[in-house]
């Protein structure tokens, strides 16, 4: 089944060229089923690229998903046309009284700042708080994972001596957890960050469990409230050339940056990157959608608040 998107969203034509099935809202209205409703708070600077990456993964499921995009009223994107934001994005006040099956919050280029120093921190933390009673399960990515852990639990982030940048091997700590059904013993995922969360800080909270990690990249996935929140420090949604584009961008800005690890063939930036994480990324999102949205969410979204203090089943 396809992902239902706003009419004329640029991602529609991009994904159609990749033979990925997407559906406009007009056609979706003709189908007599209840789609899953997923809200995406897109904090990435290049909005259209992030939209396309996430929709590509959401579309690889037999379930129909209706996607809304959310922007912050206290922050204006400098890299995406205003017309695009006004046409396809809602503000928090537009959805504050609504409920969603899922919420995805992307990373943001503000990780070197303290959380409270980020200009939109009050609004984004309000979204985090709202999600706990209005969303069945939330998927926090990279900076958002660190920010949400800090907002809910006070887990700090720590500046690293060197940026974690590349594609890294990971292992699973709890193979019985439904998020990992179908996974191999080892899998790869991209990371691109200057900061980290540490085991000793996470383990202080019985409500949190470290599900997957890497010897090189550290903690990868933490789960909260049995599946109501997932904190993912890497970028399983990245397209093949995203790390390359970040690498070239930083070189052009004369920023200190190393060649992304385990990414290019023979570690040579002149050669094509090796796709090591695409299968993992698709399976990760599919499992999240199936086991923590579709099988847990109430048919009547107004009942989500009743799930707030419940732990999802693990069958």
UniProtKB/TrEMBL annotation:
- Which pathway is this protein assigned to? Amino-acid biosynthesis; L-methionine biosynthesis via de novo pathway; O-acetyl-L-homoserine from L-homoserine: step 1/1
Residues reported to bind substrate = 163, 192, 249
Q: What class of enzyme is it?
A: transferase
Q: List the residues marked with site Important for acyl-CoA specificity.
A: 111
| Major location (coarse) | cytoplasm
Q: Name one GO molecular function term.
A: homoserine O-succinyltransferase activity
What does the record give as the active site? 142, 235, 237
Biological-process GO terms, alphabetical: L-methionine biosynthetic process from homoserine via O-succinyl-L-homoserine and cystathionine
Catalytic activity reads: L-homoserine + acetyl-CoA = O-acetyl-L-homoserine + CoA
Q: Which UniProt keywords apply?
A: Acyltransferase, Amino-acid biosynthesis, Cytoplasm, Methionine biosynthesis, Transferase
Quote the subcellular location field of this record. Answer: Cytoplasm
What EC number(s) does the entry state?
2.3.1.31
Q: Name one Pfam family in it.
A: HTS
GO terms for cellular component? cytoplasm
Residue numbers marked as site, Important for substrate specificity? 192
What does the record give as the function of this protein?
Transfers an acetyl group from acetyl-CoA to L-homoserine, forming acetyl-L-homoserine.
Family per record: Belongs to the MetA family.
Tell me the NCBIfam families matching this sequence.
Answer: metA
User: Which protein are we looking at?
Assistant: Homoserine O-acetyltransferase
Task: Look up and give the organism this protein is from.
Answer: Dysgonomonas alginatilytica
């Amino acid at each position: 089944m396809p992902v239902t998107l706003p009419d004329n969203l640029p991602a529609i034509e991009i994904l159609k060229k990749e033979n990925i099935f997407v559906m406009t809202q007009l056609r979706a209205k003709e189908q007599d089923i209840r789609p899953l409703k997923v809200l995406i708070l897109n904090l990435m600077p290049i909005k259209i690229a992030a939209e396309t990456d996430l929709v590509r993964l959401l579309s690889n499921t037999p379930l129909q998903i209706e996607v809304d995009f959310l922007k912050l009223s206290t922050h204006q994107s400098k890299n995406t046309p205003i017309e695009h934001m006004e046409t396809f994005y809602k503000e928090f006040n537009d959805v504050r009284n609504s409920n969603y099956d899922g919420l995805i919050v992307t990373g943001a280029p503000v990780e070197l700042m303290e959380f409270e120093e980020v200009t939109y921190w009050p609004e984004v933390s309000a979204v985090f708080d709202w999600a706990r009673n209005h969303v069945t399960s939330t998927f926090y990515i990279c900076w958002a994972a660190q920010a949400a852990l800090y907002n809910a639990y006070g887990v700090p982030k720590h500046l690293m001596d060197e940026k974690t940048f590349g594609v890294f091997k990971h292992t699973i700590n709890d193979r019985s957890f439904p998020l990992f059904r179908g996974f191999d013993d080892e899998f790869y995922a991209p990371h691109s960050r200057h900061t980290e969360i540490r085991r000793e800080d996470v383990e202080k909270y019985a409500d949190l469990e470290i599900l997957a990690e890497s010897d090189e990249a550290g903690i990868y996935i933490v789960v909260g409230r049995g599946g109501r929140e997932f904190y993912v420090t890497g970028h399983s949604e990245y397209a093949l050339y995203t790390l390359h584009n970040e690498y070239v961008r930083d070189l052009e800005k004369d920023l200190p940056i190393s060649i992304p690890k385990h990414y290019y063939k023979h570690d040579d930036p002149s050669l094509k990157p090796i796709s090591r994480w695409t299968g993992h990324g698709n399976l990760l999102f599919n499992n999240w959608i199936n086991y923590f949205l579709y099988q847990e969410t109430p048919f009547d979204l107004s009942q989500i608040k009743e799930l707030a203090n419940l732990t999802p089943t693990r069958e």
